[in-house]
Amino acid sequence: MSQFNVTQHKEGNGSPVGERRGFALLTIIILTFGMAALAASAVYLSGNAGLLNTSQDREREFKYGAEAAMAIGKSRLNVDPLAMPDTSFVTLMSSKQIIGADGVALPGLTVNLYAGPTGSSSGQFGRFASVVAEARDAQGARFVRRLELTQESFARYAYWSNRETNNGNTIYFANGDNLWGPVWSNDNISIASSGAWFHNEVGTAKTISGKNYGTFSKGFSENQPAIVLPSNTTLSKLPALAATGSMSFNTPNSGAAAGVIARVEFIAIDLGGPTDSTGADEGFLKVYVANNGEDNWLRGDWTGNKATTTNCGASYRTQIGGPRQFFPASVHNAANAWFILALRTGGMTLQQATDTANASIDDIMAKSTARCYLGGDPHLVAIERNNGNFTLAQKQIGGDETTFTPINGSKGRWIQWPGPIDPRLALKRQDAQYLFPIYRGLNPGAKGVVSFTGTIGVSGVLRGRLTIYSTGSIIILDDVRYATDPSAANDKAGKCPDMLGMIATNNITIADNSIDTPVFLSPTGPNYWKSFDDTKDLYLHGIMMALATSFGAENYDGGPNNANGCEGNQSGRGCLYLYGGLIQESRGAVGLVSGNGYVKRYSYDHCAVVNPPPYFPTTGKFLDNRYYEIDPVRFNVTQLFASLVPGP
Known about the structure:
The structure is a single chain. The chain is an alpha/beta fold. The chain has 4 domains: 50-153 and 622-643; 156-221, no CATH class; 232-300 and 411-616, no CATH class; 301-372 and 377-410, no CATH class. The protein is built from 12 helices and 36 strands. Helix 5 packs across helix 6 (350-358).
């Protein structure tokens, strides 16, 4: 019987083929489940990304709708002055759709828009408003945003005019004029071929002539909506604000510069804090009112006649080795035995004293100690006390800083401060009872405003923040400076402590008096012009607004044309160093190319942009200030606006 041996086929690894059946199936199942999981994960991730994109798109729509509504609200307030309520808030839009840039309404979204005044309602620190947009959908989701607006102050302009003409003649920017702040005119702006450089934005409601002669560092805009000067009605609240600090005054004259018979003088006094009289409580003012007909006296005008020259004279020693005292020219008279005695007591011989008493007006004013002072100044004691209210010992003396004549003067009087007197002042000053504190800590009712129902002269050193309002004109009688050098002030560092706004219903005019203008003399020797101020130039710090006409210099086209000079340029009255801004109805003149008047040296006060003078008028145009996002869960529009207005 035959036998057959059956041998199994083996693969290379020696394992029998039949032993691996089912393993491939398991692998396939695992791979299938893995691929399914990956597919499910991809579907999930894709769906989640879609949800996130949808959510982000919706958030962008909410934000877009709110911001578009706020822009609409800002535009509405700028074109419609009546849209802003005096108190509380107004609803400008209710459940309105917002149309996107593609012309299609944002789907499922509506907006409520509210606007109202916010911040202090007094206007002392500027005017503020808020527009609040609430974007919402049908499911109740909300997005709320607030845009705080501030009204643009006229003080931000370095130069502003309603008309660029003077007596019908077009005024040009020329001779390399440099303007460092914003410039605006409602009229055509004209630039001469000699050129001008505008370092900030330039705008006009009309056009610019001679653009190729101008350098515009920040560009220019033409044919813009006009900006309107404030009306007297708008400014009528200022006297009442001034009255709360006892600084509202009635002045006897509302005419032009030639008739001014009242003046205000700013004084910075060291009360023991900083040794440079820049402490917050060291700013004061005092007001002098001359008698009727004494405008020449108050202004310090030059008469050229020895007998009538009461504001100008020279200083002499009245004690050997002692300080000098001032004597007006009209006192220089041999008939005044007391004057000759005073000179002899100071060391002169009888002949020298007699010759001095008999000297001509030109010889008196040619002396190195010759000066001129404004009416009411204590140096003019020999004139002010020349009446029956004073004894001979009180009036037959020379003047200095201490010979103050408060009341019953022969030419006028100082107005008394009705409030309490700081003990530190009483120890330092004879005029302590006549110093009105600017600082609220010493004058609780002070609101940073002083008003005059008439024309007022201005001079002195200001410490503090103040706005002067005059229903007549404001006359610059002498330098008006800040106690803190404005060129060194830096608001970002918390400085800029001094700020002056001057608002005149009529004009703001630099006086042509013996202080601001050189005087022509004919003493022994060649004829010449001489200045009788402490400096030959005029320094003027402040933001000035002339509503009826302009800012300018009295008799700018007369007088000398090469007496003082200005930084190497020919000039009759020297440099006019203006640090601040000019706002005027019509452009005025301060000098001529021939040299008459002043040479302009104007600088822009950046402090006025962020911290304008108290209650200074605004243009009515709203500008963006700050944005805020508001919690939509707790949003209540009535409560929000109530919280944004401080209590009384």
